[in-house]
Design brief:
With 170 residues, the protein is an alpha/beta fold. The protein is built from five helices and six strands, in the order H-E-H-E-H-E-H-E-H-E-E. It has a single domain (22-35, 47-169), classed as 3-Layer(aba) Sandwich (Rossmann fold). Helix 2 (53-65) runs parallel beside helix 3 (80-92) and helix 4 (105-114) packs across helix 5.
Amino acid sequence: MKFIFKLYAITVVTVMFCLKSFSQTTIILLRHAEKDTTVQGSTTMNANPPLSEKGKHRAIRLMSELKKYHPNLIYSTDYIRTKSTIQPIAQKFNKEILIYNVKEQSKLANELLAIENKTIIVVGHSNTIPLLANMIMQQNLFTLMDDNDYKHYWIITIKNGKATACIKEY
């Protein structure tokens, strides 16, 4: 009986080690879809416009673009355009949108790096998403996005402590 218990314990430890060593975290970073710049005050620094019709269509297209990913966590800044961009995916996967403070990128990066074996989507802005990607990669690889660039997103994969990134277009 002791032998069987020891064998079982060794098997459980081995399986746990193997699962840990093959864990992979996928972090998808994207900028919000096109905003409606016809709304009064939408171009001011503190503006909070909704998505334009084109942006609403892009948010829907995002579902098919990211169809192979099943997010465990979804983060967004507390702006109408960022939450509206990810809302269709959040509804599809029945996930709450977790709000993060856009001024605390370093805190978010550390939080994301501590999460293991999950798929995470983060929606932000042209001046924050590349910086967040740099923080997660722990290298200065990416520059700010052009203000008219809504079609690129990052997929960062962390496997066995090594991060790789690719930029995709949709």
